[in-house]
Amino acid sequence: MEKYGLYLGCNIPFKAPDIEQSFRKVFPALGIEVTDLPGAGCCPAWGTAPSFDLTTWCTVSGRNITIAEDLGVPIMTGCNSCFGVLSEAKHFIEADASRKKIVNEKLGAINREFRGTSDIYHISHVLHDTVGVEKIKESLKYSLDGMTIAVQPGCHILWPSDVYHVKEKNSFFPTQLKELVEALGASAPHYSRLEACCGMGGMRSTDVEKSLELFKTKILSIKEELDPDCIATTCSSCFLQFDMSQKTLKERGEIDFEIPVFYYTQLLALAMGFDPANVAAISVTPRDAVIAEIQSETRKVKEEEHS
């Protein structure tokens, strides 16, 4: 059984703990051992140290990476921002010997040393490349055959691809999430704004109206081009944006629909037969109907139960 250090970040445990529970259900069931990273802190997020001081950023990120190094495991995170911040920090430390020296001098004050022995993976990389779509197909209790799902990979898992050790084959035409959704039996058609930003992150914090305008362009593209049963993302920030902003736009009269939103591992957990009360319990956008449809008797492909 392969083993990964689970780096949760901030958004998932604080705002979407049911996403965390979906991780803890599906990975062991798929043969991946997940271990916690005791003492891990903020990655740090883009709007903090990465915005003003490269050495501080690399030191804080480096400390988090050393926790995994001490355990002898690679890092696996479900947050695109954490993936990007940690991956870029690792690149900046390793690409500059003088910076690595300074970072390790600072880390030495807390008896830590960055060695560069732990790679950074996103949850979608582990599911797609390590577990594989065939094993996912074999694990399903329910099939999503006939459903249409719009995929939202998010930005920081894709770019800047030139500094990522682990990445898509083509960041301008991402296929991993599409293939993971298709492994559930659903279709995941392309749409014109697939690679576009949803407006979350720093923009949401500094200019809500610009953020909502970007989001509106994206959600209208999804609705008009696909009219999907739901949306699947592997970015916790994108999940929050899609989940909370549809209600805002609808209350303003700018859209007249709401599309249920899931983090991918929530859909996977539901299709594997896990209890929705554990793995898909928290959302602003209504999704009870699509959850009931996913776990309906007509979609059952095998009888095994998960606890």
TrEMBL record:
Cysteine-rich domain residues: 5-86, 149-243
Key word Oxidoreductase present: yes
GO molecular-function terms, A-Z: oxidoreductase activity
InterPro entries: Cys_rich_dom, HdrB/HdrD_reductase
Keyword terms of this UniProt record: Oxidoreductase
Domain of life: Bacteria
Protein name per its UniProtKB record: Heterodisulfide reductase
